[in-house]
Please model this.
Amino acid sequence: MKAAMLSTEKALSIAIQSEYAAEDAYKLLMKKVKNFILKDKLKFLSSEEKKHQKILLTLFQKMFPGEEPSKNEKLLMPRLTLALEENASVPDLLEMAIETEKVSEEFYDDLSQEVEDRTAQEILQYLASMEHGHYFLLKGEYDLCMRDEEYYNRDEFSVDMVHVGP
Model:
């Protein structure tokens, strides 16, 4: 989905709804893992998405006073939500979450180039940068899952986990 093809109001509504969905996805994913390290990272990501919602809602209200963002917009990555409902594997969900962060980064970057307000541009660039960081955090966890298929199921840190780190 290209931000340039959307009105700013619609693009922000999509972004807000996508951040809600991402928060929910991380919370559900957190319930599927036992590894306390990965759980903490997913909790962090969930809280980050909540912050993004607040930032985007504030931006929306500034740009469109008296309006409410549409709750009926298509999500940036509906596949992640569907995969959670279909009980996909943790590595598959992490892979989709990685893709979601990348798509979100590109969307915010594109949208920042479409809005004229300098403050809005900076906020959207900030969000793009945050999504970029989330991408790499998830990529690291995904790589650990690929090296050790039991990584996400380990409920305690022990000497047998030393092979999964850098």
About this structure: The chain has one domain: 7-151. The chain has a mean pLDDT of 88. Helices lie at 8-32, 36-63, 78-85, 90-114, 118-147. Residues 7-151 form a domain with the Ferritin fold (CATH 1.20.1260.10).
